[in-house]
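Quick note —
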Amino acid sequence: MGTLSNIRKISPYALGLFAIIFIGYMVLSDADISTLIRSGESLQNAVVGKVNGEKILYTDYEDRVRAQIEQQRAQMQDPNQEIDESTVRQQVWDQLVDNLLFKQEAKKMGIVVTPDEIRDELIENPPDYLKKSFTDSSGKFLRDIYLQLITNPESYRNYLGSDQQQVSEEEKTQAVNQLRKDLSEIESVLARNKMFAHLQTSVGMFNSIASPTFAKVKYVNQNSSMDAKILVISPKNVNPENIKISESEIQQYYNAHKSFYKQEAQVQLKYITFPLKPSKEDSARADKRARELDEALKNAKTVEERDSIFNIKMSELGGETFDYTPVNKIDPEVYKYLMFLPDKYIAGPLALPEGITYYKLDGRRPSSQEIVRANHILIKINNNKDSAYKRALEIIKEIKSGKDFTILARQYSQDPGSAQNGGDLGYFGRGQMVKPFEDAVFSAKVGEVVGPIETDFGYHIIKVYEKNPEELKYSKITIKNVISNATKNALFRESYSISKQLQDGGNIDTIAKRLNRVVNVTPYFTQERPIFNSWYITNKAFDLDVGEVIEPIELKYYGIFVGQVVGKKKAGIASLEDKRDEIEAKLRDKKLLDMAKSQAEQIYAKVKSLQDLEQAWQMDTTLKFINATGLKNDGKVQGIGNDIILTQKIFDSPIGQILSPIRGERNYYIIQVLNKQIPDAQIVQANLDNYIKQLTAEAAKSAFFSWYTEVKKSAKIKDYRSKYYKDF
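Predicted structure written out below.
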């Protein structure tokens, strides 16, 4: 159309640059609105967060999420598809925080994105929605007009409606504001790119990381492989006897490794959930509705009367009608109930996962599309085309002798997707199969067997069972066993009662026991990821003190939630008590490994003169023996797991010799290297320059994100969304 429909679309420009797809929708509860009104705060000036003192406005946050939900819904093939609202809300939040931090850091660094740079970027990569807005009826992009307007967003207002459409001032303002936001996003992205380049040149480690010597060693390691025999002497084979770990050993280890025990601030909750499930009364009501419908249909004396009753119940029970639909577009699980029904006849009651279901066939008509239903037998070619072809001919001979096609398909077909179903491919139209297969199927007659037909998959033997089947019109009634408002309200009343008792000083375990409810306890969690997939609960938990209560909230997968903060840990070094079990386990493993050393040395003394390490294993088959092939110097060994000490030793060792025991991360090893595959020096040199560039780019990227992680950790980020939203 022209301008108006295009300006209503959200710009994907900045979002594409960040490679983020946003979905979702925000809901401000009535209670929260009331609170806002009473406080005298207007939505226009409401603040949902701050980044180092810089505000994130409610209106900006809300507008962005609403725009993303619109965009996502427009892209959905299924309009009923559920949208993960909590995900989009957090993604939008993260983007706003990132944008502000990038701008702030750019300012500190003296990095300025000039209007000319923004203009150059817009010239190079015009946002799609703007390109469409500045495209004439012939499809030509009006670049000159576009360039005039992007540097002055306000002039965009005058352009809107110039294609003789009535555009309101409100719509013009909305479009101009959107353009301003897009320009701001572009500025943030350009600032980020400039900072990246700045860091790339200023961080001195890049040159050393990607030095020719380092790159050559790393390239050889990555492109080399080895074969080796490995004898594993595990502490599991050692009798631990009376291994004891003293308090002083634990203390000493803790003192020496404190730097490894840094922790983020953490919170622990006790909580009760009320699953939102139908009550016995709800189930009884659903059963009653199903019985009433069933009895009414059974008592109908004619097809017409039954049809009339069904249509009345459709209105009462929220039934659905599906217009004429080709059978290949009908769910096979539905079609099996419809395929043999006469017009106006009903299939049901059917006990389906969604509830007690009835289907009624409302009509049939010839298909308006070319559709077939066929079965096939696939014989893969592999490395012997002649053999595969011959085998296909033999099967065709069996079919012609009268043997059942579906039985032979189950027996011989090498298509794992259809073989067990007798080769049934279901209904399909043109364009859904590879061309040779399609041509053969649509040329064949019903009941005809054709083949062998060669495709990239192999040789096919095909039997056509149906062509151009009917289209069906049908109706559906599903009586769902759903939770009623009365049941839900009763659960909320109980949850609010518990919440009030906790706020008055009650003990959650005592309260729950009295009400026959289960108390659950979370592990200590950080603020990095949402607990219960809810940022609201996560952020709220960190805002509250020990003993304070998170009031009832409905969670998507858990039902109604009531929580209480029962523990908090400050950011810093984890206490010895928190790490005691972990340290004790490490020290125990170390002592066990020490004990395995003597066993490894005894075994080595017996086998070092052997020609083949496998002979050593035959002397003691209680040990673990691995014949490892294609090893990389990355610590991964099949049958052992990760042990970088082991693979490094293998790569540094000579071929053929049985080596003295190696102490790995969890075991002792005796190894014998069989061979090495190392790239030729000329190949290494030929690829070195490109490899250095790759390493430099990876190092730059890693340094940038490490830098940004620290920037974000040290930033003062305030999240006030819980004032306005309970579901995010």
